[in-house]
Write a structure and sequence with these properties.
single chain, 274 residues, two-stranded parallel sheet, two-stranded antiparallel ribbon
């Protein structure tokens, strides 16, 4: 082998070594650093304690675990998977559930006061008797959730999916539900006085006997909704759609009708004449 050939082979070997070293360095830099957990958080994850207030527990899979009665007030539970977990009676005040999956979880009687639930998934979750006062949710999914007798006083459930939800006996004083979907929801006998339901979808929702006095339903879609014997004094239906809705026993003369599509499909502006 000539000197030139030997030199070229050596140079190629050095180049390959440099490339391998560079690739290894890039891979090492790309590998995520392990999340540093506090001793209390590690004990919670290990199951030796259920109390972990203000702990950083984000990005964990805690599915099917038993956290009944746990104290997680102020904890970071963002992007956590809690599918079919038991959280019954847990203290979850001010907890961050951003982008977490709570589907099929048992959350009966939990305290969620002030919790952040942006883009949370809670499909078929049982929230019966939960305290959800001042909860803040944007683009959440609560489809088919059980929310009987839940307290939503002052809650913001904006642009969220609550189709087929069960809200019997719920308290909604001062709630803002604007832009949310309540298609086929059971809203029978609910006190919705003054509640913001602007641009809400309520297609085929059952509002039998509900109190909608002063509620804001501007641009809401109530196609086929059941408004049998609802109270409508001061209800704002501006630009709303009431097409095919059942309004027997409900007095639309007490409501605000401006560019509103009536049950017969006609648009109406001004006082409703008998």
């Amino acid at each position: 082998m000539s000197m030139r050939t030997q030199w070229m082979a050596a140079a190629a070997a050095l180049a390959l070594c440099a490339l391998a070293h560079g690739a290894a360095a890039i891979a090492q830099e790309a590998a995520p650093a392990p999340i540093a957990r506090s001793p209390q958080a590690l004990a919670f994850i290990a199951g030796t304690t259920k109390d972990c207030p203000k702990c950083d527990l984000h990005d964990l899979d805690l599915s099917r675990r038993d956290f009944s009665g746990a104290n997680l007030a102020g904890a970071n539970l963002a992007q956590v998977t809690l599918v079919e977990a038991n959280l019954m009676g847990a203290n979850l005040t001010d907890t961050d559930f951003t982008e977490s999956d709570l589907s099929l979880a048992n959350m009966r009687q939990v305290n969620l006061h002030g919790a952040v639930m942006h883009q949370v998934t809670a499909y078929l979750t049982d929230l019966t008797l939960a305290d959800m006062t001042e909860v803040y949710m944007h683009s959440g999914l609560l489809r088919r959730a059980r929310m009987q007798r839940v307290n939503l006083t002052g809650a913001y459930l904006i642009d969220s999916d609550l189709r087929e939800v069960r809200l019997a006996g719920a308290t909604l004083t001062g709630a803002n539900l604007g832009g949310s979907k309540f298609d086929n929801a059971n809203l029978v006998d609910l006190d919705l006085r003054g509640v913001n339901l602007e641009v809400a979808d309520m297609i085929n929702a059952d509002l039998t006997g509900a109190n909608l006095e002063g509620a804001i339903l501007r641009q809401a879609d109530l196609y086929g909704a059941n408004l049998f014997e609802t109270k409508l004094k001061g209800t704002d239906f501006t630009e709303a759609r009431l097409q095919a809705a059942n309004v027997r026993g409900a007095n639309l003369q007490d409501a605000i009708l401006k560019d509103t599509m009536l049950p017969n499909g006609e648009f109406h502006t001004g006082p409703l004449t008998q």
